[in-house]
UniProtKB/TrEMBL annotation, chains A, B:
It catalyses: L-homoserine + NADP(+) = L-aspartate 4-semialdehyde + NADPH + H(+). Belongs to the homoserine dehydrogenase family. Residues 304-385 form the ACT domain. Its EC number is 1.1.1.3. InterPro entries: ACT-like_dom_sf, ACT_dom, Asp/hSer_DH_NAD-bd, HDH, HDH_cat, HDH_CS, NAD(P)-bd_dom_sf. The lineage of its organism: Bacteria, Pseudomonadati, Planctomycetota, Planctomycetia, Planctomycetales. It comes from the Bacteria. Pathway: Amino-acid biosynthesis; L-threonine biosynthesis; L-threonine from L-aspartate: step 3/5; Amino-acid biosynthesis; L-methionine biosynthesis via de novo pathway; L-homoserine from L-aspartate: step 3/3. Keywords: Amino-acid biosynthesis, Methionine biosynthesis, NADP, Oxidoreductase, Threonine biosynthesis. This is Homoserine dehydrogenase. One of its GO terms (molecular function) is homoserine dehydrogenase activity. Transmembrane segments: none annotated. The gene is hom. It is an enzyme of class 1 (oxidoreductase).
């Protein structure tokens, strides 16, 4: 079933194989497995539900569908005694769904950290390697086909967060919604952030993290400083990686191309073969002690903050005061960059400088409270950059 | 079943659960799955064969068994309609058997490169990081429990080659024996080899490689210069990694701890769960065009050669002549290290120096022929170091 019969797909198929009738597969008793690749959520949900109710197994590559309505579909599949597989829905060619649910099935998962968006990872690699700014790197990526014309879902963390929700459900058997993820994108970063990270011996990655803590499950997708000695920092370009920590295995890694036609086909076909071979998927069992996501304000981390401020007396003191009286303890505060020439053409204005602050471990909520105050600072220019610092 | 009933295993088990009667599990009709963890080949082969013939499924962590007698066991399992799984037999906690045979089942595998021995990888990481020589790094690794008292099978490549044989059978559906692997160890390396690699922007890894070529399957386990920009070069310490190249997926990676009690348990339990869930393993189908290993002399690569020679006139010329007349084309020849002080105490002797040669792509057989000639050189001191250079 395709939407547009007239589109040239570069294939020679016998007449009648391609059709545009959604009901035909559902009503055909000879069809045993439906593969959903139409994308979008409402129509795909209806299609998959109808397939399951008609007694077909389902294979899908639809990440948004599984993120938003996966639990309903899994319940329906169980009710119908049918299987739903979605390896291609998370990180394309990275065989992480099978990895988590089958290869690591004996482990109690304690955490995972992952690079789940190839576009962002490519942009960050280029910015680090060439010193380019975000806009420049994006233009190059769009030219080379590594970024969409509208890259917002890739660079603002949405895409990675949808994948993290799916993975964390599988890994922790927890009920998780998109809103449980502390979210930040890479679109506010500048070349100097990557340069500063490098000086600290770190790479910047859009890291998706899920951590089992005593307070609950911490979930975040944010630009993160990762030590260069950590091999995750070495995963560059469009490659995705998921590093899973389990009580038995220690840390196991799955990596590969996160998107693309052929890697997606590899995952869809693996699912098809698995269904055809009658391999029942493991489903995350409800754990003995269910774990809940912590509120995003309760995420605890070290933070990197970069402010652009006019270089007036007291600006350091004002910032330090806001952070300190918000209960945020500072590890260091550094006036980092040289005054930016282009912003200082009018000699009467004081120069604009970057101030980088590294905090000790603190709750994200304190930072949010502090932000309400620093937004009112007269000397602040633009939105400050917030990154996590991996431990 | 255990060998020694009196050994304290730190477990409280009801009486009668532990016993030392090999036949009991085989003859018990209630036993459905046998897990073989006794090690060694002949006794394990007999046990697994008897279990299969008695209608039990088998899970084993025995690498040597699968390398040496796997094909016989798989044939017997098929005959008996039973399953044999061995995830723990290859790279411990790295879920590569499931990865190759299930997640990547839709791919035509074109090659794989892997780090399959944690001891060697730890030693090479330490030598690179600290400048220590082989003996010094080994002593430290033994002290810290990363190397056995007798590490020969780890450092001479045997262990990694056994794993490569198993992986390459799965990946290429080919008949492969241990002797088909071009084999070299890390025990001849010295600090200066790692230093020289670093100057070239490379890391040294004991790399296990299988490559589909027009001439057949190239198989090697040898110390190899890997570019530092290649993320495989960043995998250090006891971690193992298998990077698989497939026509659809591009390159997918599986990584984790290659050995250890818990990672092995993780893999054995995953196999047990898979058998219990009745997931039939995929077995490598006989490919339409069977591929055969190329003779080890036909392995084609760039090579790094390091000779220790007394610094006499003509020694460069002698070496260059031997290599040239053996048909080996040189990319560069460098007198690398300073004269080694300790070998030059007697002022009458000419100093001993290291000469490093980088070749263009050449067949290993030519190198073997040249070796027969350079071994006769009067100025040669000790065995030359031979490494591959990854493309």
């Amino acid at each position: 079933m395709v939407r547009d019969l007239s589109k040239n797909r570069g294939l020679n198929l016998p007449d009648g194989v391609l059709h545009d009738d959604m009901r035909r597969a559902i009503d055909d008793p000879d069809v045993q497995i439906g593969v959903e690749l139409i994308g979008g959520v409402p129509a795909a949900f209806e299609l998959c539900s109808d397939l399951l109710r008609a007694g077909k197994h389902v294979v899908t590559a639809n990440k948004a569908l599984i993120c938003e309505r996966g639990p309903e579909l899994f319940a329906l599949a169980a009710e119908c005694g049918r299987t739903i597989r979605f390896e291609a829905g998370v990180a394309g060619g990275v065989p992480i769904v099978a990895g988590l649910t089958e290869s690591l099935a004996a482990n109690r998962i304690t955490g995972l950290r992952a690079i789940l968006n190839g576009t962002s990872n490519f942009l960050l690699s280029r910015m680090a390697d060439t010193g380019a700014g975000y806009a420049e790197a994006l233009a190059e990526a769009q030219e080379r086909g590594y970024a969409e014309a509208d890259p917002s879902m890739d660079v603002d963390g949405t895409d990675a967060a949808q994948k993290l929700v799916i993975l964390a459900r599988l890994a922790f058997g927890a009920e998780i919604a998109f809103q449980d993820v502390s979210l930040g994108g890479i679109d506010g970063l500048d070349a100097e952030d990557l340069q500063f990270a490098k000086e600290l011996g770190c790479a910047v990655k859009l890291l998706a993290v899920a951590n089992r803590t005593k307070r609950g499950l911490e979930l975040s997708v944010r630009p993160t400083l990762v030590r260069q000695t950590d091999a995750v920092g070495g995963i560059g370009g469009p490659m995705n990686v998921v590093a899973v920590r389990g009580d038995l295995v220690g840390e196991a890694w799955f990596a590969g191309p996160g998107a693309g036609r052929e890697p997606t086909a590899s995952a869809v076909l693996a699912d098809l073969l698995a269904v055809a071979a009658d391999r029942p998927p493991f489903h995350a069992a409800t754990p003995a002690e269910p774990i809940r996501p912590v509120p995003v304000d309760d995420l605890v981390s070290r933070f990197y903050l970069r402010f652009r401020v006019t270089d007036r007396p007291h600006v350091f003191a004002d910032l330090a005061d806001i952070l300190g009286s918000s209960g945020i303890s500072l590890a260091s505060i550094i006036q980092h960059a040289e005054p930016l020439a282009e912003e200082n053409e009018d000699d009467a204005d004081p120069p604009v400088v970057s101030v980088v602050v590294m905090t000790h471990r603190t709750a994200a909520g304190r930072l949010r409270a502090a932000a309400e105050r620093w937004e009112k600072l007269e000397s602040l220019r633009g939105e400050p950059v917030v990154m996590l610092v991996a431990d």
